[in-house]
Design a protein that fits this description.
365 residues, four-stranded antiparallel β-sheet, 13 helices, 8 strands, 15% strand, Acyl-CoA_Oxase/DH_mid-dom_sf, flavin adenine dinucleotide binding, AcylCoA_DH/ox_N
Length: 365
């Protein structure tokens, strides 16, 4: 079975070969793959792996070079994500959270924050997560009201990952007019902030996912990242339904890698892995075309996302079946990929993307 990664299979939009091959792929092959199972369950090795990306200035590749990044566009970043996710879904997940925070800061009008944070985030000197998925919920779980010198925030941010690694997160709270205020919030217990114990998660437990309760927390104007109009996150979901595709396709490739190793060991020759590999490569070929479609073609884009998620889960299931009963042992790579596929199936999920994913599984298609 061919086990080609996106760097060789995607002809267009290649990331600079020297940068990736020497700084990323070599690091992943040598230092991440051997401990991938450990990174899924143990926080400290996972955090050290994150620091390793920072040592190579690879934590915020979408930022421009003058802010410490690689200046990758969406297609380049998907390839970057895919490579990391092939080796460790947990590491790819945390890097994506950090990159999301950096992108929000990059778009901020608060120049003091951007100048202080962005170069330091590229190296990991500053480590920042995100917590704004609650904007999809009504009534809003976190409310904000203007006060002298800033805003007062109250409510619970239900999902923030990276406790013990990230020292802050970009949180969001809804104002009375439905707009949202975004700001930097400490990710630590202190006055007006209560951080839960890490959640008991099946997949990527090492990422340290918690909820954060705010009780009249004062967000100073100096810590404000920006504001967004009412309905911003719903518009973002419609504008960017393909955002998790790098993680999804990387996990799919990881599943096929595990399947190939197991089938070779058991001396089983089956056409399915090659068929799935061809589908992964075709998805990469079609991805730039879908990316270029206007927002009005949302349904076509979100359906493509649903099909990619279905493909990822098929690859993960293939890894399990190829390994047989040993896949059920703790630490087996098939089990790790299977759990990572669960996480990536629902990451950033909106109602529309949930329906599209279910449609992709429909027996009546």
């Amino acid at each position: 079975m061919r086990n080609r990664d996106p760097l060789s299979s995607l002809k267009y939009y290649l990331i600079e070969e020297i940068t990736l091959n020497l700084l990323l792929k070599d690091y992943l092959d040598r230092q991440i793959t051997p401990i991938a199972a450990q990174l899924d369950t143990e926080s400290q090795p996972l955090f050290e792996a994150f620091y390793g990306l920072g040592d190579r200035a690879l934590l915020t590749p979408k930022l421009p070079s003058d802010s410490g990044g690689l200046g990758l566009d969406s297609l380049g970043f998907w390839q970057f994500q895919s490579l990391v996710a092939q080796h460790s879904g947990a590491l790819a997940f945390l890097q994506t959270q950090h990159q999301s925070a950096a992108s929000l800061l990059q778009a901020s009008q608060n120049q003091a924050l951007t100048q202080t944070y962005l170069p330091a985030m590229a190296s990991g000197a500053k480590r920042v997560g995100v917590g704004f998925s609650q904007l999809r919920k009504q009534p809003a779980p976190v409310k904000a009201q203007p006060v002298s010198g800033g805003y007062q925030l109250s409510g619970t941010v239900p999902w923030v990952s990276g406790v013990g690694l990230f020292t802050e997160f970009v949180g969001a709270a809804e104002l009375a007019d439905g707009s949202a205020i975004f700001g930097l919030v400490p990710l630590a217990n202190q006055k007006a902030i209560s951080v839960s114990q890490p959640m008991a998660l099946m997949g990527m437990a090492a990422t340290g996912t918690v909820s954060v309760s705010l009780s009249d927390y004062f967000l100073a104007d100096e810590q404000v990242v920006g504001t967004r109009p009412a309905g911003w996150i719903q518009l973002s979901d419609r504008t960017n339904p393909l955002s998790p595709l790098g993680l999804v396709l990387g996990c799919a490739q990881a599943g096929l890698s595990v399947a190939a190793q197991s089938l070779s060991k058991r001396q089983i020759d089956h056409p399915l892995p090659a068929q799935l590999q061809a589908r992964i490569e075709q998805t990469w070929v079609e991805l730039p075309k879908l990316h270029d479609l206007p927002t009005e073609d949302y349904q076509q884009k979100v359906n493509f996302r649903g099909e990619a998620i279905s493909l990822m889960n098929t690859c993960a299931q293939t890894a399990v079946l190829a390994a047989s009963g040993v896949a059920n042992t703790v630490g087996h790579p098939a089990q790790r990929v299977y759990k990572e596929a669960l996480v990536f199936s629902v990451s950033g999920q909106s109602k529309g993307s949930a329906i599209a994913s279910l449609d992709a599984l429909s027996i009546h298609k």
